From TrEMBL:
Protein name: Peptidase M4
Leader peptide range in chain numbering: 1-21
Top-rank lineage group of the source organism: Bacteria
Alphabetized InterPro entries for the sequence: PepSY
Length: 101
């Protein structure tokens, strides 16, 4: 799936608006983490996620859990199923995949 400008903008907006329950990450903190190489840019994570599960991005969050950062990404596939992917925010390594009923 090709990442288009509107899709990327939507993903970045979702990231900016999403904050995990156990940590108050604001957009300045997310920017600092990215600039210091502690997390990958959202564009790279979306490329990995859509290679794993092609479809339409419907939600993206950055979470701080277990001493690290992870992106939780929800993708709607062509059959209407929602895939929830968790990717390590530093490496884009897949950590978890779940299909919502």
């Amino acid at each position: 799936m090709k990442i288009t400008a509107p899709l990327l903008a939507f993903g970045l907006l979702m990231l900016a608006l999403s904050a995990p329950a156990d940590d108050d990450l604001d957009h300045d903190e997310v920017r600092r983490l990215r600039e210091h190489g502690q997390i990958l840019p959202m564009e790279q994570l979306l490329e990995h996620a859509t290679r794993l599960r092609p479809g339409q991005l419907i939600e993206a969050e950055l979470e701080h859990r277990h001493g690290g950062y992870r992106y939780e990404i929800k993708i709607l596939d062509a059959t209407g199923r929602i895939h929830e992917l968790e990717l390590d925010a530093t490496t884009a390594h897949p950590l978890h995949h779940e299909v919502e009923p």
